[in-house]
Specification:
Length: about 800
């Protein structure tokens, strides 16, 4: 009896000191099963059982807060210092604003719990919006537009910023392609096999470096599995607008100690149908002569792509270590870019090119992309006085894409990147928990060929960052800082005396070698934010960020024809002297961009009505942007690109590009500010309504507007759900954009309507959802103001998609 009493006393003491238990219910008192309960700032977590009950061992942590979440409910944070030994009873409130955790930062974050605006696209919502490019997949997300280089290439534009300011990441590591160099280059990642896509709006430099001064888009998949829990998905669809067939699958499984993952996709489509002639006069509201155009078809827009990922992980008692390999291939035409010339270049020996000859016979210019990507990931829980976890990510990417002209190699773009990032998760001290991040990246980028507009370059960077947060009552404080060292080297270029200006008397070109000196930058960033739960179901967030960005190599060293965008690009190291004989001087006096950004957010996150409103103001000094000089390349270089002076050289092509408009990268002080809003309302048991909208103004502080600024837009969707049936009808309206830069034309507004009907049929593979979807139902002509091809490539016409998808 004595021993039994002692044992019971020890068990009770253990529950008080080392563990916590309780029950999770909804507002009606019904238990919530499979809810996640975790110790804030650590890996210690568990799930609730069928009765909503849980027991969590906190022996190995300095636990002060529990974080509780469940699908369809608002997240809750519970302090442990006031709970005593009594079991917890926590009530979760249903929400209309979906809350999904973000993996893009080492600390916990979701749309309602971050001072900085974040959003996540996942589950059925992601499957419904998937497109052939990342930009088109995300174009309806609040604050995100698409660069839309025709249907074959488009990148996300976050709050009016893109290119080297918005980092595209795959599982937290740079995707390492050429899409940041030009909008005609495809983002080398695939949404069809993604688990979720995370968007961090505004400066996200604290853990991603100066290349994320405008935001981060992180594509998350399970290529390195963290558990062996069996799960999978597959999808297949047909799109009428380009007779496209697409299919994908993912599967993760394994044993107690080993997990494996495999996924793959394939997509094959012809040229897109469009509702009007492709090309419009830039200076008149009329079309070119009909015989010069292919009305109803966007030439050179056919594409095929395929890829796969293989990965495996060794599962440890407190973490895992895994490795993956991925292969991505894509062959596509380049819309608005067609040559009518012969060639004497080396033929590109590619079986895919031969297989696709019939489909691409009308396209003289193609892009052939290949990427091999390795990732090593480990996440380990530690038992240390200072550290509770160690996360390591190593990525190696070998990227190449070749521009093919009539089957011969034109310009070859390569990007070889090695990136290592280690996050040290710190034990909680005085209520503060956080992480230290160490990151190194080495990038070797080259563009080789007659149309290489920037020289080969190497960029090395090393950084250290710190992020801390603390919960004090109704306030969640978030602090961060990062310092970075960036070094850029570029190969010398042939610098002709005549290239300083067109020769008035003609004569021979005097070539000399221009040797660039090594450029060093030390950008740093700091931020402070707070989230205030000022009332039940409401909170407000404020975030202030100072961030700096080192310029990219293309912004600095470019000097040549960028045929994809139909321009002659000149980097910031070359200063234009405008006179009767315009010419350039080399000047290496360049600066980092400096951003001072403030975000204000107001949110309602529980009940039948939910909403989020964000206001932002971003002042960026020394902002790099491409200014249209009004000059053409013949006037600048003395060369007539139409004549192709180098055509007689063996292995080179005779081009017919004509004189190209000259765009110069310059630095100026700018201001960007705007509004983002989303609203969700449960109208009844079966009907819900979603409304959203955003606007942005992007101005030069000395007067004028930045080019290609997204227009104001609003949208909405009415949803119906009843057992296995779901339906939706949506509309998005883009207003006229008349706030244009010098020499930039305005763009008319347009409205896009869509509808979808689906039915879920139970099967041994989980619910199989059959769907029918219609896009651009009114077949409206729509031209994207943010696109370099707005006057040559409208959005696709009316499209019907039919397919099936399943998650199991």
């Amino acid at each position: 009896m004595k021993h039994t009493t002692i044992a019971l006393a020890l068990m009770a003491l253990s529950n008080v000191t080392y563990g916590v238990s309780g029950q999770i219910t909804d507002t009606a008192g019904q238990p919530i099963s499979d809810a996640s309960v975790s110790v804030a700032g650590s890996r210690i977590q568990t799930k609730t059982d069928a009765d909503g009950r849980f027991t969590l061992n906190t022996a190995d942590s300095n636990a002060t807060n529990l974080h509780i979440k469940a699908p369809g409910f608002s997240h809750e944070t519970v302090r442990l210092d006031a709970t005593g030994s009594e079991p917890l009873r926590v009530t979760l409130h249903r929400t209309m604003i979906e809350q999904i955790d973000v993996t893009a930062t080492p600390l916990h974050a979701s749309a309602m719990e971050s001072a900085q605006p974040v959003s996540v696209l996942a589950g059925d919502n992601l499957r419904r919006k998937q497109s052939s490019t990342l930009g088109e997949t995300l174009k309806d997300a609040v604050g995100v537009h698409s660069s839309y280089f025709g249907p074959v290439a488009s990148s996300p534009i976050v709050r009016g910023l893109n290119g080297p300011r918005v980092l595209i990441a795959q599982n937290g590591l740079d995707v390492s392609d050429a899409s940041r160099v030009g909008p005609d280059h495809v983002v080398a990642t695939e949404a069809m096999t993604a688990e979720q896509i995370e968007i961090l709006r505004g400066p996200a430099t604290l853990f991603y470096g100066s290349g994320a001064i405008g935001g981060v888009v992180n594509v998350v998949d399970e290529r390195v599995p963290s558990s062996s829990e069996r799960r999978g998905a597959f999808a297949a669809a047909y799109n009428s607008v380009n007779e496209e067939n697409e299919a994908s699958f993912t599967y993760t499984g394994g044993t107690e100690r080993f997990a494996f993952h495999v996924d793959g996709f394939s997509r094959n489509g012809d040229n897109y149908e469009i509702p009007a002639p492709a090309e419009r006069m830039a200076d008149a509201d009329q079309y070119e002569e009909p015989e010069e155009l292919s009305e109803g078809i966007l030439e050179n827009s056919a594409s095929e792509s395929q890829g796969f990922n293989l990965g495996g992980s060794w599962l440890l008692d407190k973490g895992y270590i895994g490795l993956s390999y991925g292969r991505l291939e894509r062959l596509n035409g380049i819309p608005g870019h067609s040559h009518d010339h012969g060639h004497a270049g080396e033929h590109h020996d590619d079986e895919r090119m031969a297989d696709k000859h019939d489909e691409f016979e009308e396209a003289s210019v193609l892009s052939d992309l290949k990427q091999d990507r390795w990732q090593l990931v480990s996440e380990l829980q530690l038992e240390s006085a200072w550290l509770n976890g160690l996360n390591t990510r190593i990525g190696y990417t070998d990227y190449e894409h070749v521009e093919l002209e009539n089957g011969a190699s034109g310009t070859v773009f390569t990007n070889e990147t090695l990136q290592v990032r280690t996050d040290l998760l710190l034990e909680e001290i005085a209520g503060w928990r956080g992480a230290v991040s160490l990151e190194g990246k080495k990038t070797d980028f080259a563009a080789v060929g007659e149309e290489a507009f920037t020289p080969p370059s190497r960029t090395d960077s090393f950084a250290i960052g710190l992020l801390q947060e603390k919960q004090t009552g109704d306030l969640l404080w978030q602090l961060g800082a990062r310092i970075e060292k960036v070094t850029i080297n570029a190969d010398p270029i042939a610098w002709e005396e005549e290239e300083h200006g067109a020769s008035e008397e003609g004569g021979e070109h005097q070539e000399e070698l221009l040797v660039f000196k090594e450029l060093d930058f030390t950008p740093y960033s700091a931020s402070a934010g707070v989230v205030w739960d000022f009332a039940a179901a409401y909170n407000a967030g404020v975030s202030v960020t100072h961030a700096q960005r080192a310029p990219s190599s293309a912004e600095l060293f470019s000097f040549g024809p960028h045929i994809g965008t139909g321009s002659f690009e000149v980097g910031a190291l070359f200063r234009l002297h405008e006179s009767d004989n315009p010419h350039f001087h080399y000047n290496d006096d360049v600066n980092e961009e400096v951003s001072n950004n403030i975000d204000l957010s107001l949110r309602k996150h529980a009940g039948d009505i939910g909403w989020v409103i964000n206001l932002f103001y971003n002042q960026i000094d020394h902002f790099y942007y491409e200014r249209n000089t009004g000059l053409d390349s013949e006037a600048i270089t003395g060369h007539d690109h139409e004549k192709g002076e180098e055509a007689g050289h063996e292995g080179e092509h005779e081009h017919d590009h004509g004189a190209l408009p000259v765009y110069v990268f310059e630095q100026a002080d700018t201001v960007l500010y705007g509004l983002e809003a989303q609203f969700a309302w449960r109208l009844s048991e079966h009907f819900t309504l979603d409304l959203w909208g955003d606007s942005i103004r992007a101005k030069l502080r000395d007067g004028g507007n930045l080019p290609r600024t997204p227009p104001v837009r609003i949208g909405g969707r009415l949803n119906y759900a009843n057992n296995a049936w779901q339906a939706g009808f949506g509309m998005a309206h883009y207003f006229d954009q008349k706030d244009t830069a010098e020499l930039e034309t305005s763009t008319d507004g347009y409205s896009l309507l869509e509808a979808e009907l689906s039915y879920a049929l139970p099967s041994s593979f989980g619910d199989m959802t059959f769907f029918l979807k219609g896009s651009n139902l009114t077949d409206e002509e729509a031209r994207v103001h943010t696109s370099f091809l707005k006057d040559r490539a409208p959005l696709p016409g009316r499209n019907f998609s039919i397919g099936v998808r399943s998650m199991f």
